[in-house]
Amino acid sequence: MLTPTAEIISAAYAAGRGVGAFNVIQVEHAQGIVAGAEEAGLPVILQVSENTVDYHGGLAAIGAACLAVAREASVPVAVHLDHATRADLVEQAVELGFGSVMFDASASPYEENVAATAEVVRRTGVFVEAELGEVGGKDGVHAPGARTDPAEAAAYVAATGVHALAVAVGTSHAMLTRDAALDFGLIAELRAAVPVPLVLHGSSGVADDGLTEAVAAGMTKINIATHLNKAFTAEVRRVLAADTTVDPRRYLKPARTAVGAQVARLLRVLH
């Protein structure tokens, strides 16, 4: 069932649990993610990034597909715009029916980040996530090893009015190995200082026990993309290595199933 992001995240935040937020590239991702959530019997968030919007040539088709998959689900499913840098895209997502947006002005100077993000919060009226401390692996914009300062994070939330904050605590985007070393002490400090749910980006690089500990330390929304893409691609390769088919359904269906299996497992790790 399509559910407001705020409702899913608020419930998890209050209970000290984690919520899995998984990135969608094509409709098979959305279907697999929701199938995994239904297997686990747990809420989930479907995320569409600005990069994916550009890949599809626009938000309308992939956004409508995600919303349709969410409406048909037997568990709560939210739909979220991820890492949007363009205000017009944010407005389009809200008009389409997305329950939340992540507005990313982290490449801008602090004062510009605050002003732009506060304006998005004021204009959209939906749940807004933002980023202050840089998270590694974003084309040189986010410096590896960056860390979010708790006092600055608290001031940023107060100045912008955002509903969730992505923080830098040791992860990096697009990691192919699961060996990121998280700063759990910093997570706890941020949780104590910041009055809104914390978001962990780059979570594909974190092992299961690290994800569990991150949630225990204070993380709520856990973003995962690359890990699912690895599972999806590995299954496509496996099928095509043994089959000369030209029918995409022959390899996309097992790839979709592989995504669902990973989502079900990860949601249980985070819960």
UniProtKB/TrEMBL annotation:
<protein>
    <submittedName>
        <fullName>Ketose-bisphosphate aldolase</fullName>
    </submittedName>
</protein>
<keyword id="KW-0862">Zinc</keyword>
<dbReference type="InterPro" id="IPR000771">
    <property type="entry name" value="FBA_II"/>
</dbReference>
<dbReference type="InterPro" id="IPR050246">
    <property type="entry name" value="Class_II_FBP_aldolase"/>
</dbReference>
<feature type="active site" description="Proton donor">
    <location>
        <position position="82"/>
    </location>
</feature>
<dbReference type="Pfam" id="PF01116">
    <property type="entry name" value="F_bP_aldolase"/>
</dbReference>
<feature type="binding site">
    <location>
        <position position="131"/>
    </location>
    <ligand>
        <name>Zn(2+) 2</name>
    </ligand>
</feature>
<dbReference type="GO" id="GO:0008270">
    <property type="term" value="F:zinc ion binding"/>
</dbReference>
<dbReference type="InterPro" id="IPR013785">
    <property type="entry name" value="Aldolase_TIM"/>
</dbReference>
<dbReference type="GO" id="GO:0005975">
    <property type="term" value="P:carbohydrate metabolic process"/>
</dbReference>
<feature type="binding site">
    <location>
        <position position="201"/>
    </location>
    <ligand>
        <name>Zn(2+) 1</name>
    </ligand>
</feature>
<feature type="binding site">
    <location>
        <position position="83"/>
    </location>
    <ligand>
        <name>Zn(2+) 1</name>
    </ligand>
</feature>
<feature type="binding site">
    <location>
        <position position="104"/>
    </location>
    <ligand>
        <name>Zn(2+) 2</name>
    </ligand>
</feature>
<feature type="binding site">
    <location>
        <position position="173"/>
    </location>
    <ligand>
        <name>Zn(2+) 1</name>
    </ligand>
</feature>
<keyword id="KW-0479">Metal-binding</keyword>
<dbReference type="GO" id="GO:0016832">
    <property type="term" value="F:aldehyde-lyase activity"/>
</dbReference>
